[in-house]
Structure formats: structure tokens, C-alpha cells
Write a structure and sequence with these properties.
This protein is of the alpha+beta class. It is built from 2 helices and 4 strands; from the N terminus they run H-E-E-E-E-H. It folds into 2 domains: 30 residues; 76 residues, no CATH class. A 4-stranded antiparallel beta sheet has the order 1-2-3-4, with no helix packed on it.
Length: 143
């Protein structure tokens, strides 16, 4: 009997907690639902979700995004920039024209040691054109 009462008490607490969370989430979201949650950004004025209306490429590492607030009463439209700033894991098919710093957690000397000791193995790129340039040589492409 006590076990059933404890289980009912826990279930009631769980329902109350879920109701509180739902109410909190409803207060936080003012505008309409956004299709792609990964591209959501809060409106700097009202705090509602904003969605990307359009974008354009500025360079290989930067994109300009135009956001629109989903709160009809606010209607704020604004521009944001998205920039690739560092490499966490080096590309297997790098573009020699793209120069991104390695993240501080990647030890350059360890990476160099791995590259110096690595043997050659035949590989044919299926999706990207191969490059024969040294990735660590400085300067622009001369080809």
C-alpha cells in the first residue's frame, strides 16, 4: 500500500513539474513556431524566435543572414553574420585557398608528427577535386 502511495505521489509531482515547464516554455515563446530550430535566433527587441528569410555568401568562410521576428506585434527584421573562425578537426580534402587557424586543443606538433610518419596509400577522391599542394606551405596558389 505504501509503495502504491509513493508511486502516485511521484507521478503527481511529475505531472506538476511538466505543467510548470510547459507554462514556462509558452511564456518564453512569443512568436509563431519556427520551421528549422537549428537556425533560430532570439529577436534582440522582444525575445521571440526569429527565422532566416534569406541569406547570401560573402566569402568561403562568411555568410550574411537576414532574420525576421516571428512576433507579429514586433516585426523586427535584422542582419546577422555567420563566420567560420577555426578548425576543430582538419579536412581530409582541404582547399588550399581557405586559411583557418587550428583550435587550441589541436596540437600542431602532434599533427605534424602524424603527417611526417604517415605512409602513402592510394586514394581517388569521389566528391572533391584532389590537390597536390603542400597544405603547410605559405603563400597563394601559383597554378
Amino acid at each position: 500500500m505504501q509503495k502504491a502511495d509513493a508511486m502516485m505521489h511521484t507521478e503527481a509531482e511529475h505531472r506538476a513539474l511538466m505543467a510548470t515547464r510547459t507554462a514556462r516554455q509558452q511564456r518564453r515563446h512569443i512568436g509563431r513556431e519556427v520551421r528549422n530550430e537549428g537556425t533560430r535566433m532570439a529577436c534582440p527587441h522582444c525575445g521571440a524566435s526569429s527565422e532566416i528569410r534569406t541569406s547570401r555568401v560573402l566569402s568561403k568562410t562568411m555568410r550574411e543572414l537576414i532574420y525576421a521576428c516571428t512576433n507579429a506585434e514586433c516585426g523586427h527584421t535584422f542582419v546577422a553574420l555567420t563566420e567560420i573562425v577555426r578548425t576543430l578537426s582538419p579536412s581530409a580534402t582541404p582547399d588550399p585557398h581557405v586559411n583557418l587557424p587550428l583550435s587550441s586543443h589541436v596540437r600542431r606538433d602532434m599533427l605534424r608528427a602524424v603527417l611526417d610518419c604517415a605512409g602513402d596509400a592510394p586514394h581517388e577522391a569521389a566528391y572533391t577535386p584532389p590537390t597536390d599542394r603542400d597544405l603547410f606551405e605559405g603563400g597563394a596558389d601559383t597554378s
